[in-house]
Amino acid sequence: MPELFDILLSDIDEKVLYDEISTRLGSAYLLETPHLRSPHTTVNVHFLYDSGSPHTFLLQEACDKLFGTNPVPPQFFVKINDELVLMNPLNADSHFEHVNLLDADFCGLLKDHY
Asked: Taking a C-beta distance cutoff of 8 angstroms, is the pair 46, 54 a contact?
């Protein structure tokens, strides 16, 4: 139940996400770039990896970039490095409202527990 998951991250805000992290990665946050092997556009999304998170979360602004004016479903798949990853839109009451959170399952840490 993704809507029940929450962590406190008070030191990362929009400025850190858009400026500091983007600068260090050399890639602007939510920048659209053409995909070389697909007709789809690629959107640069920065994630914080949390080995204790059972779910992956995407900020509302990133969901808006992907879905445009279409409604955002409660869960959806997004390709990250050619892997389909189950996403959840960020819960409005969460304490990590400026962070896209990548779960432990993405790196295969929990694959033997399912």
From this structure: no
pTM for the structure as a whole:
0.77
User: What residues contact residue 58 under an 8 Å CB cut-off, 6+ apart?
Assistant: 45, 66, 78, 87, 88, 89, 90, 100
Paired strand residues for 76: 87
pLDDT tens by residue, 10-31: 677 778 878 888 899 888 888 8
What are the residues whose beta carbons fall under 8 Å from the beta carbon of 76, sequence distance 6 or more?
Answer: 86, 87
Domain residue extents for the chain: 8-106
> What tokens were used for 93?
């009451």
Q: Largest Cα–Cα distance in the chain?
A: 38
